[in-house]
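Bumping my old thread because nobody answered last time. Still need a sequence for this structure:
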């Protein structure tokens, strides 16, 4: 016959404390991941960079009349020319109306 030994078990209070600690750790981790994902989505400007490249292409091929202003989704886009150090420059600028984030590209006028 097998003799059963008493196994020392944890108390109910220790189990509750461990459970609360695990829940707190998972909550903190989920908030951190949520913050990272939302910042990545807000900072994603690839689509606007592509649109500015398209406007630059249109300008190079004389299909874009200056000054040019338009809205694209939530972005306000302007294309202007000005002199910088006695060189004519073209400025492609996009401003997000919601977050006030600005993208700017400059090139020498042709």
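Sorry it took so long. Here it is:
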């Amino acid at each position: 016959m097998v003799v059963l030994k008493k196994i020392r078990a944890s108390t109910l209070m220790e189990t509750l404390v461990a459970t609360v600690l695990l829940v707190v750790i998972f909550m903190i981790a989920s908030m951190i991941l949520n913050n990272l994902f939302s910042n990545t989505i807000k900072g994603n400007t690839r689509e606007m960079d592509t649109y500015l490249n398209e406007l630059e292409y249109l300008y190079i091929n004389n299909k874009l009349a200056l000054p040019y202003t338009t809205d694209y989704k939530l972005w306000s886009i302007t294309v202007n020319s000005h002199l910088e150090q006695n060189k004519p420059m073209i400025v492609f600028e996009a401003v997000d109306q919601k977050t006030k984030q600005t993208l700017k590209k400059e090139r020498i006028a042709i």
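The helical segments are 12-42, 46-60. Let me know if any region looks off to you.
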